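User: My instructor asked us to take a sequence, write out its structure as tokens, and then describe one feature of it. I'm not sure where to start. Here is the sequence I was given:
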Amino acid sequence: MNPSPNRQAAVVGLFTAAAIAILAGAVLTIGDINDSFTRKVTVTAVFDEVSGLKKGDNIWFSGVKVGTVKSMRFQEDSKVEVVLRVDREATPFIHKDVLAKVGSDGLIGNRIVVLYAGTPTAPTLEDGDVLSIGKTVSTEEIMATLQENNKNLLGITSDLKVVSGKLAAGEGTIGKLLTDESLYASVNDTAATLNGASDNAKTMTSSLSTFASKLNEKGSLPNDLVTDKTTYASLTATVSELHETGARASELVGTLAAGAANPNSPVGAMMGDGAAGGDLKQTLENLNRGTVLLNEDLEAAQHNFLLRGFFKKRDKEAAQKAKDDK
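Assistant: Let's start with the prediction itself. The structure tokens for your sequence are:
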């Protein structure tokens, strides 16, 4: 009697599953055998918490796998002691003061133990060493930091939104500057004025520089005023004399004004008495007329034969004296 098709399928499936199990066991066995033939150094590290670390997870040093986690157990103070098996061929590069921390293979990858730091002058790693623990940043702390940063970013974005809204509405100085053309033109004019003032200041500075350079030129008046004490003293004396002359002139004008105010004084009589002024004018005219007549008489006397010899002699002596002076 032939077996049913269902029974044959079940037998084939059973044998297939058994073959797969045997193959997987062989792979694992070969791996353990390979690992057992690799010489190891066993060290420990005590962590406050291991963040999901488990037996068989890898140990990394400088980005290279150097061993695996052998076992883990709790201590009385709720800390976790982790036993690490490190490849002996890597120990010449790992020192006793190396630090250990629990990390991850990528952001969300498997947990690993990371060895880092260490002093080159310190002894190398040996069996039974207890490693120091470095600061570990857990995924939860990273996510909490990212969440806090997101809140800060949201706050900044909200503030920027409020500020940009006010700018668009023309609120505040900057908003008015962006929306009010007259204010913008005024600011432009102010900037132009400031530029002009800057140019004027530059010109004035240049002029002062030129003047200052001329102060150093010997023989010039500014240099003499600055360096020559004689010139400065002479200038000071001249100014003093001008002040004194001005004071005397002021005193004279005051005296004349006082005399003109007194009708009994000569000046007052001349200034206030019309008749006296007329007499003085007539006297001056008479003196001028007498001077003219005297000149005419002297001219006539020169032509008189009695006095002609005298004037010729005088002219001759004057000519001789002029000749001797030359």
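For the description part of your assignment, you could build on this observation: The chain has a mean pLDDT of 77. Try explaining in your own words what that tells you about the chain.
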